[in-house]
Automatic annotation (TrEMBL):
It comes from Paraburkholderia terrae. PANTHER family: BIFUNCTIONAL POLYMYXIN RESISTANCE PROTEIN ARNA, BLL5923 PROTEIN. Signal peptide: none annotated. This is Epimerase/dehydratase. It holds the Pfam family Epimerase. Residues 17-242 form the NAD-dependent epimerase/dehydratase domain. InterPro entries: Epimerase_deHydtase (IPR001509), Lipid_A_modif_metabolic_enz (IPR050177), NAD(P)-bd_dom_sf (IPR036291).
Amino acid sequence: MAHWADGLAGESNMQQVIITGANGFVGHAVSRLFLQRGDSVTGVVRQPGTTVEGVREWLLDTRDFVSIDSQWSTGLSPDSVVHLAARVHMMQDPSADPLAAYRETNVEGALRVARAARNAGARRFVFVSSVKAIGERDPGRPLLETDEPAPVDPYGVSKLEAERALFAYSRESGLEVVVVRPPLVYGPGVRANFLQLMGAISRGIPLPLGAIGARRSLVFVDNLADAIVHCATDPRAAGETFHVTDRRDLSVAELARMLATQLHAPSRLLPVPAAALRVLGKVTGRSAQIDRLIGELRLDSSHIGKILGWYPPHTVEHGLLETAAWYRSTH
């Protein structure tokens, strides 16, 4: 059943945008930017009252967007759709067949939204994928959009399959598809590993990261949101795949030191060799987490600059300052 929490008011000078996953970490940031532009934003969510102020909520209680086409309001004809909703990466996946579960949500679900959007008159569909669609390591240089993808887990496989399925649908239907591949996203409201890292640093816990020089790409959530808005509105983005980063790759040690400064906490980084951390990972059954700490994963994000003239509006320092300020005010 679909329910409209607010009426649809359309003005000819506004873009009408639909965002799936508008209640999430990235969804909030993207919604705010569209609203600042004066666009009309509708968020597809399951629970009411979970989007930012000004977003019209479309409450859709169907799993994996099954029957979204039949529940689409006749009053909603979007210019573009940003698809953020996904079955996200899980360290301990409870599903008996994780790949099938990821495919049903991330591939079939995305296609259902794309088809319904096209039928409703949408011109542009922005699919927010993941660095995991291309791989977990870089080959000694930042990864390009044209590099051969090598996803290693069910989540990454499903994101790559979704990219390819959407581009195939684009060729068949004429719907303009744009794929955005972010690396680790951080900012106010961040969860999971990044939040745990800030918690440990703020409490002054010694961390075995002092000798880790491997660099990884990051993107501040407001930089990612800015790129997504460009991808939804710039005619030149149609048919493109873009890596989006802060354009400055940090080592885990650099990141921890910068966070310590912004959190007003001591930087207690122990110089434990990477080889010792690998052994620790095997002993504790956390090899995957350790590999992400000590392996390089950099994305070349120059392509979006060449095609759209886009450059991140916020520096890494600003992003970490905003993130640390949020953490200090809420923890």
